[in-house]
Amino acid sequence: MVIAAPPLSQSLQSWTWKGHHIQYSATGPNDAIPLVLIHGFGASIGHWKKNIPAWAEAGYQVFALDLLGFGASDKPVQDYSLELWQELLADFCQEFVQRPAIFVGNSIGALLSLMMAANHPALTQGTVLLNCAGGLSHRSDELPVFLRPIMGSFNALVNSDQVGGLVFQLVRRKPQIRRALSQVYSRKESVTDELVDMLYEPSCHPNAQKVFAAILTADPGPTIDELLPQIEQPMLVLWGEADPWTPVQGAKVFQDRAELPGNEFISIPNTGHCPHDERPEIINPLVLNWLSSLKL
Description:
The chain has 296 residues and is of the alpha/beta class. The chain is built from twelve helices and eight strands.
């Protein structure tokens, strides 16, 4: 008689970092190779709900956390930066993971994964990048000329004490969130009420507008070109080809590294900015196959 294994539980837990509540989860065997999942702008642990069970059931210990300012973690009114979140991740790994991990990130989470590999190599076994962002915010020289004054004006409005709250209230409306998601998800049926709610609920926090403005106007941080020469760990890069925010044409720097041992670049057709959520049936096995090839 075959006895089915009990289902893996994903427990949401709380950690206090620098006086702030941080929400995280840990799923899978305690002694397994650790994966640390890092969400993108506006997202949270829930954005990995289609991935965590598959990777944990394959025998990995899967950690995920809500970065400070996002999800169910605290939202203090302060300066935000990629360096701040990098420090958070390093402290989290030293306290809970306690061994080198594979960092899996989407968008700015992918850029943070690169930063961990470059600046904390002792904590990093490798990285999985999903549509890696080029910075926390757009650099003016990366935008088309006609968009530069528009983005500058929008950022000024969001940060304004007089009208910032009104602008934020318009941006955070559920129909507006759905429209934005429909632009970056190729498969429109993936834009569910649950996904919209995941992004909407943190915006109800009293500090949400100030945090949104602080992040939107923050320094973009290090560039991909600055980080890549420092990275020796293996890297899997997965890219949704239909992403209007981080177009696949800009991923050539990763394609050029695909010949290096342990490095691989795969583009996913008809897929947008969040391939792990939009195409988990493709992304989950690709990640597992790559991990198996490393023979960690």
